[in-house]
Amino acid sequence: MRIISGLYKSRKILAPKNLPVRPTTDMAKESLFNILNNTFYFDDVSVLDLFAGTGNISYEFASRGTEQITCVDQDFGCIKFINKTAEQFDMPINTIKSDVFKFLEKSTLQSNIIFADPPYNFDEDKFGKIPELVFKNNMLLPEGVLIIEHSKHTDLSKLNNYSHSKSYGGNMFSFFENA
């Protein structure tokens, strides 16, 4: 994977092959950040990266100047890799090793941007639990956005607080906002 823009532009990060991840493609990531760039100043936002995996999305935010980034993943190998990479590049990334749903049920953390990249094989109920918990626990700051990455074969448009979706190849980003 590579960082697309910012301080660490074009840097390649090689994740261990044994991590249980499916990193967001460069094309999809670049498109997502083009959208976000029109709405947010990256140095003024806080980011919560759920199902963080390799930390791919968090590195992109850090490279663009975001100072408050929290990654949540249940896999120790992923958390260890994110910590190592963040330290190597001196990125302001905090990690939490936890099941994402347990974290969402108990957390009081509020963020401008919450990005979730759960396994594509989740059933619709599991996908729906993400925005349900985020909005129930008031985790999204005013004018913030929850973005869920999923397969183009999954339709999240009937979920509460759904705003719109964007499709990039086989990847889809669904956006959720405060009503």
Automatic annotation (TrEMBL):
Entry's Gene Ontology molecular function annotations: methyltransferase activity; nucleic acid binding
GO biological process: rRNA methylation
Keyword Mitochondrion part of the UniProt annotation: no
Transmembrane intervals: none
Keyword Protease listed: no
PROSITE patterns: N6_MTASE
UniProt-listed InterPro entries: DNA_methylase_N6_adenine_CS (IPR002052), RNA_MeTrfase_RsmD (IPR004398), SAM-dependent_MTases_sf (IPR029063)
UniProt xrefs under CDD domains: AdoMet_MTases
Keywords: Methyltransferase, Transferase
Domain of life according to the entry: Bacteria
Stated name of the protein: 16S rRNA (Guanine(966)-N(2))-methyltransferase RsmD
Species: Algibacter lectus
